[in-house]
Each structure stands twice: as structure tokens, then as C-alpha cells.
Amino acid sequence: MTSRPKTMSAAVAALASAALLISGCATTDASASAKSETRTVTSEVKEVNMPAEPKKALGMYTTDLDMLITLGIPLASQQPIRDSGYTGFPSFFDQEALKGITPFTNYPEFNFEAILKAQPDVILNGLGYDKELDGKLSDIAPTYTFNGFDGSDWRTKFKTVAEAFGKTEQYQVWMDKYQAKVDDVKKRLAAAGKSDLVIGPVDYYEDQVSVSCYGTPCLVIKDLGLKVSPLADGEGSKLSAEQLEQLNGIDAIITTEVPEKDGANPDAFAPLANNKLWTSLPFVANKQIHTYDLEMIYGSPSGQYALLEKFEKALLS
């Protein structure tokens, strides 16, 4: 995910200013009461004075929304989804928590008007790579910003977010649940003699096969004690159709898929169907190509747990 400059429209800026003006007309007693019900925390950008008990939180990206849900924080009535074939919230999110919540497209272009219309009382913004975004969102509601896409383990950021919102217990509940699942799958892999499998996070794009460790897949692979293909080291590898023999040694691959608007998920590797180097690879011959939703690659609680379940099904069923 890359940073893209975004511009708030003049109309939305005017609406935000009007909202701030109206809020400024509250009585002194109401202001004093509100102040006593806030907490001051420090984000990666600035000090934030936000509600102690948010009632209408909004996540700037779907990963932020998932963190809010997992921490049990009440949601604003509208929440973001990304474009690229998605018309609703990721299927692996807690659907019960999303009942009555309306999705709006907020990536790759930011929809400030929809954010303002949602009337959030706090915003969780994990897109801290965009240096101008925090200021724009802070004109709408108190905003806690962090960079969830800096290449670090997202769970470290999740813990910091949980501490900021006073939800460390909920964070630990998820961590314990995830670790228990890891321990169970790891034990069963060992019993099945599959502890030494070599996994390749592989995708096909613009006539090249890429192998890389971006996002959650390699976190799960390493948590399970499996081996990551050395082709994924560093910046990863990009292979042409004539270099596919380098994929030998991989026992199974995992690859992203983006749902089409009609629900179909085309085979990303279909263009390689007549490539003998490809069809002769053991993981192709043994049908060890396993897909997962693109949204799982970006670090969030439900995404990583769902990806762990994908590994469980792929390697142990």
C-alpha cells in the first residue's frame, strides 16, 4: 500500500468548520463535563484529547475498523471499505458487530465527506504514512494516528492502540486466542510430519511471478515454525516466465485474490497454464496453491486469524 496525496474539498472543509462552530456554542457546564470524560494520549503524531468512552468511533482503513471491533469500541454508523472489487466489509470480520453499519469506499481515494457525515467522536487512522492526513481528520474529530504500513509487526501497533483506548484486556484476549490456535496447528503439523514445509508467498502480476514477505503471511508462516522460501528474503524476487525453475524447493504457495464485483475469483496463474516450467513445479503438480483474501495481508486481528485458519485448512485437511 503506497502513500497518495489527498485533498479535502472546500465544501467538506466548510462543513467541518460549521460543525466546529456549532460545537463551540455549547455551554460552559457542558464543556466542563465533556472535558472530564476525555483522556489525553500521545499518538505517533501528536497529543490527542479524545473521549474516554467513545460512542461513535470510525476506522480510516478497514484494518483500523477491525481493531476497533476487536477492542469492543462502539462504531459510527458508516465505516470504510476499499475499492478494487469490494462492495462490502471483508467476510472474515465480525459480521455481528457490523450489523446496521453502512460501508463507504475510502481507498484509494479518501472520502472526507462520508467521514464527516458519519459524525464520529474519534477516528483511528493507521495511514500515518500520509503526513497531511492527520490534520485533515482532526478537523472532523479527535484522531489517533499511527503508521500501520511501515513494515513492522502490526501487533506492536495494535498493542499501542489498545493502551491508548484503555482496552489492553481486550487486546490480550485476542492475543491469547491467536496463540492458542497457533500452538494447536503447530502441534498437528508436527504430528503430520509437516513441520519442515517450505512456503512461498507468491503472486502473478504484469507477466511476472513475485515472491515476497510483505504483510501478515510471513508472520503466520514464522509463528507456525514453517520455512519461508529464501526467494522472499529482503525485497523479494520477481521472476519472468523463463525463470520459474527457481521456484523448485517450495512445497506450497499462498497467493492473494481480490473478489470481483460479481463474486468470481479468477485464477491468477491461468496465463501460465501452458508454461512447462510452471506446470512441472511440484506445488503445481500437487495442487498446493492456496488463495486468501487480499485484505488479510494488511495487519489486523481478524485478518491474521483468518489467514492462520487458511493455513490450517490448506496444510492439514
Describe the structure.
- Keywords: Signal, Transport.
- It comes from Arthrobacter bambusae.
- The radius of gyration is 22 Å and the shape is globular.
- It is 35% helix and 18% strand.
- Strand 1 and strand 2 form a beta hairpin.
- It is of the alpha/beta class and 317 residues long.
- The two termini are 32 Å apart.
- The chain folds into 2 domains: 157 residues, 3-Layer(aba) Sandwich (Rossmann fold); 144 residues, 3-Layer(aba) Sandwich (Rossmann fold).
Number of strands: 13
Could you state the order of secondary-structure elements as H and E? HHEEEHEEHEHEHHEEHEEEHHEH
Strand proportion, as a percent range, falls in 15-25%
The percent of residues in helical segments reads 25-40%
By CATH, the topology of the largest domain is: Rossmann fold
Oligomer: single chain
Low-pLDDT runs of 5+ residues are 1-35
Q: What would the average pLDDT be, to the nearest integer?
A: 88
Please tally the helical runs, counting DSSP H or I stretches of 4 or more residues.
Answer: 11
Backbone CA Rg:
22 Å
Distance between the termini: 32 Å
Identify the CATH class of the largest domain: Alpha Beta
> Could you give a short account of the major beta sheet?
6 strands, mixed
Task: Assign the CATH architecture of the largest domain.
Answer: 3-Layer(aba) Sandwich
**Structure classification:** alpha/beta
